[in-house]
Description:
Elements (H helix, E strand, L loop, with lengths): L2 H35 L14 E5 L2 H9 L11 H8 L12 E8 L2 E9 L3 H6 L7 E5 L2 E6 L6 E6 L2 E5 L2 H8 L7 H6 L8 E6 L3 E2 L5 E2 L4 E9 L2 E9 L31 E6 L3 H12 L6 H7 L2 E9 L2 E8 L2 H8 L3 E7 L2 E6 L4 H6 L10 E5 L2 E5 L2 H12 L21 E2 L1
Antiparallel strand pairs: 1-2, 1-8, 2-3, 3-7, 4-5, 5-6, 6-7, 8-11, 9-10, 11-12, 13-14, 13-20, 14-15, 15-19, 16-17, 17-18, 18-19
Helix pairs in contact: 8-9
Amino acid sequence: MNDARLYGIFVLMTRIYNIVLLFSFCLLFLSCTQKKNKARALSDFVPEKVSVVFQISDLGSLRSDIDNNSLIPNYNTSVPYRFISEIRLLDSIRSKGMGLLCMSDVDDRTEYTYITRQSDSVSILNSISGVSLESYQFDKQEFYRSNSMEDTIYLMNRDSILVISSSDRLLQSISKGNVERSDGFNKIIKINIDDDLTSIIKANSMSLSDTTMIDMASWMGLNLEILPNGITASGVALDQDSTSQLISIFRGLIPQQSDIAKVVPLESNSVFSFTYNDFEILNNNLINYRNGNDSTDVVHDLFGSINEVGQIKSNLGGAVVLKSLDQVITMETLSKYTNELETYKDVVVYEFTENDLFVDQFDPLIREAHPTFCFQLDDFFIFTDKDELSKHIITSYLNNNCPVSYTHLRAHETSDDISYAV
């Protein structure tokens, strides 16, 4: 090969190399530019160690729902209620789209942070009658405070996102990048992103009663619907693949339709129920959770014919409800522990002798339940601790005075709902 031909090949290879190098630089530049221009998410500003996040699609609609609700105004001193209902500077941003209202515990106080997308927030807020903003510097960054209302409010605007907080220290911590980054939070906040109102709860320390705290799950996400006479919630919970969390009790189970509302009197104070499709799995999960022993064959026979267990509390007493898949099997199993007492409105009421059965089997799901009476209403076997409550439930059921008669209470039938409800 002559020198001229070698030189030509060298020049051609050099040109190809330069083109490839230039193309690579262009790709790198475009990649960096796209990354730089990528809009930050509202969740990028959620405070570290947040307790509860309310994901609100429209503040105006939420305010209207709250005003029309008969229950929420009874809690008018709570932080979320006061923020949504009373802070005037929200009037200018309430129709600007999605917002996150975050609750954080700071020095034994509940502080709030509200995050929403607002490109020209400072000038908008300055234009509100009776609201004035004062700017100040921290760590070479600009912040604002407003003393025009009952409480001092602190604000910052970053990347067209407005962050409002009741705590100066909390806002400054967010500006330093101290935000919620856990995998569980990032996962659950994306599950119901399009719903009108969602509550995202850190569930590793929840109150089961006035004296009992439990590790429920890592995070819970509940879709909330505010109705004129109540609030409904349904959603999901995430665990940490640990038997120490209460939600692990339902691992491997398929949620079933909840029908307990059919037998709950409207005057009840609280109702709790859980469903399951396989008692053997549920029982093994309970054993692992409690580090206890297996239950008896009698218990297996009884609860193997059940797919929902509930607990009702009222001023008249407490009740446990079982929804049976096979009334004959359930009745035969219970017959050893019942004695007929009386008939009330054509319903036979029995004495029930195994008073600790439900607590022994389902603790911590069922607690403080020691029934002495039982009776059957169609598919439901109901156990009460007071004769007066038995008669009240029977009367309510026969007179259609139960929530199932009202259209605003619905049974969730999809497997996307968690397998227990409160």
